[in-house]
Write a structure and sequence with these properties.
Layout (H helix, E strand, L loop, with lengths): L5 H6 L5 H23 L10 E2 L21 E5 L29 H4 L2 E5 L9 H7 L4 E6 L1 H15 L5 E3 L7 E5 L4 E7 L4 E7 L6 H4 L4 E10 L6 H4 L2 E4 L18 E5 L2 E2 L6 H19 L5 E5 L25 H8 L9 H13 L5 E3 L2 H5 L25 H19 L1
Parallel strand pairs: 1-2, 4-7, 4-10, 9-11, 10-13, 13-14
Antiparallel strand pairs: 2-3, 5-6, 6-7, 8-9, 11-12
Helix pairs in contact: 5-12, 8-10
Keywords: Membrane, Signal-anchor, Transmembrane, Transmembrane helix
GO cellular component, one term: Golgi apparatus
Pfam families: PC-Esterase, PMR5N
Amino acid sequence: MAARDPNLVTSAKKIPLFPLLSLICFTSVFLILSQFRKASIPSALTSPNRSFDIPDEASRSTVRVGSCDYSDGSWVYDRKASSARYDHTCKEIFKGWNCRLGNKSNAGDIVKWRWKPDHCDLPQFDPVRFLQDYRDSSIGFVGDSLNRNMFVSLFCSLRSVSNEVKKWRPAGADRGFTFLLYNLTIAYHRTNLLARYGRWSANAHGGALESLGFKEGFRVDVDIPESTWAQAPSFHDILIFNTGHWWWAPSKFDPVKSPMLFFNKGQPIIPPLPPDRGLDLVLERMICYVEERSKSNAVKIFRTQSPRHFEGGDWDQGGSCPRLQPISTEQVENLFSVNNNGTNVETRLVNEHLYKVLSGSGFVVLDITHLSEFRADAHPSSAGGKKHDDCMHWCLPGLTDTWNDLFIAHLYSIRNRN
């Protein structure tokens, strides 16, 4: 080891450390306080959850594939969000859902709320990357108008980055499009109950139902899928199902005047079943139908129930949804608790049936319910163009864009596992 020259050591000029350390500390405190002051500027719109500036995309945490419960989180207001991922000019948006054109007062703010899971992040999906990654694929949305709401959101997001689109209706679909540069098809198959159903009237010659006093109702064949989607499992590579809203709809299936009458193998089920038990049977049979006929590598997803936010009565009782920002956890429980048996109770009741029947199946559950329960502000409400407030469907652009972020995160998670 080389020896040090003692003359160099003693001749070196000693620099006082105290002034230097003081300067460094003062500078650090000044910078911290400056950043804190910027972060504490209040938002123009307060939130019952929390609100803060969203960091740039590059600095956000990435989705932890397969390890994050996306349903556990809160809505945060993104003051930097300047516009939606697509705008109100997308022609596929149903007029009643186009809240910009309907002049809904908070239409611009709806898209500024972002769902933030507690233990990871849910980034907005990249439509260009998605088109490239799912080239030569077909996606089928099967269900009621809430699945159409989600289908339109996905179409408009993809259409904003790819103009060459062919319109057609594959496999009995109500609507469908192929993005020609990528050979990616997305389609919507409309079905209210999944099972085939139609008007039923008593036979003059009598029968099992007639002997019980039934004169008319709706025949529901629990073992036969509605023709609008019967071919979908063998056609699509990715399937996303929903059902539920029509099962708790006394205005459509009056339990006295026009009840649901369930049939199996062409014969009425005796004794007659209540709708909730009928739902179980339909789910069981339709899940088996899909698993027997879908492609061997098909991705099968079942979306949970989309919540309604009627307050002061149901849609035909003067109910409305006037809120302009997400509601609190306490308000969510007041609206949706099964124990309260309120106007919107079917949301969690349907999910109980879904989870019970889907357990052990080859379906992946897409849970959008809890995060959507907070969004009483995101319905068309009185801007929907109806005689009553629309507190069931969602404004577009809007909440179903987040559903698709979650849907596509699931797809990538499944792909990575496989």
